[in-house]
Amino acid sequence: MKGLSTSRVFITGAASGIGRATAQRFYNEGSNLVLVDMPTEEESELKAMFPERMTYLQADVTTKVGLDKIQEQVNLGLDVFINNAGITRDATVHKMTDDQWDQVIAVNLTAIFKLSRMAAIKMKEQKSGVILNAASVVAHYGNFGQTNYTATKAGVIAMTKTMAKELGKDGVRVNAIAPGFIGTPMVRKMPEKVLEMMEGKAPLRRLGEPEDIAAAYAFLASEDASFITGTCLNVDGGVVLG
Ligand SMILES: NC(=O)c1ccc[n+]([C@@H]2O[C@H](COP(=O)([O-])OP(=O)(O)OC[C@H]3O[C@@H](n4cnc5c(N)ncnc54)[C@H](O)[C@@H]3O)[C@@H](O)[C@H]2O)c1
């Protein structure tokens, strides 16, 4: 895609699922990757998958130490920052603990704010850059057991619009993607009945693949999307249409 080759692309939560597929997609496009994730056994696998044009940062995006490591790399310049890392800690509202609330807010919302701020400062200086944020279709219609998660994803969409308004004059675009039900390893482990229900909700009658989301990130990062900012692109097989 136009403008991705040789671009310097940061992806958080890159060791698994959508993040990993996105890393693969940008690598195939010729980008230079800075991949961020928690300490994980997947690190050596990623190093084998991306033998060149890749820097791996073991960093927890909720800690100062983690953010400092990322800052060092951001100081060297960047073209695209993808805030993909996200977690769930599900419970119905009357059973949800403060910890479950705080953990999800820390990863899915506060870290995205801090990393977007970090990227925005450098991108404003450069007068160019793209920030992409992971939302979710559940931001649009709520989801049982996910008061914390849905609040963060709706927050991400609102932050994306505000940052797009503020940064547009400096040549910086900010967009979000709202994936539907994506067949990441975590989702594929769910009972057959739940998977069938998820497929049935989508007019396209299938789960999405991590590669479907990766393709959308690549498009929004590319010059083909140079007039798109402040949007949240649903990549969900039509689930949100109801
Ligand atoms: N899979 C889906 O169906 C789906 C649907 C809608 C939205 N999303 C969103 O897409 C994103 C990726 O989802 P996924 O299914 O690929 O998830 P995943 O669990 O497979 O991967 C998330 C990655 O983020 C990393 N991570 C978690 N906390 C971190 C932290 N504090 N610091 C650094 N890394 C951290 C994890 O180690 C993991 O590698 C998430 O933001 C998720 O909310 C996923």
UniProtKB/TrEMBL annotation:
Gene3D superfamilies: NAD(P)-binding Rossmann-like Domain (3.40.50.720). Residues 7-180 form the Ketoreductase domain. Coiled coil: none annotated. It comes from the Bacteria. The keyword Oxidoreductase applies. GO terms for molecular function: oxidoreductase activity. One of its GO terms (biological process) is monocarboxylic acid metabolic process. The keyword Oxidoreductase applies. Keywords: Oxidoreductase. Belongs to the short-chain dehydrogenases/reductases (SDR) family. PANTHER family: 3-OXOACYL-(ACYL-CARRIER-PROTEIN) REDUCTASE (PTHR42879), 3-OXOACYL-[ACYL-CARRIER-PROTEIN] REDUCTASE FABG (PTHR42879:SF2). This is 3-oxoacyl-[acyl-carrier-protein] reductase. It comes from Halobacteriovorax marinus.
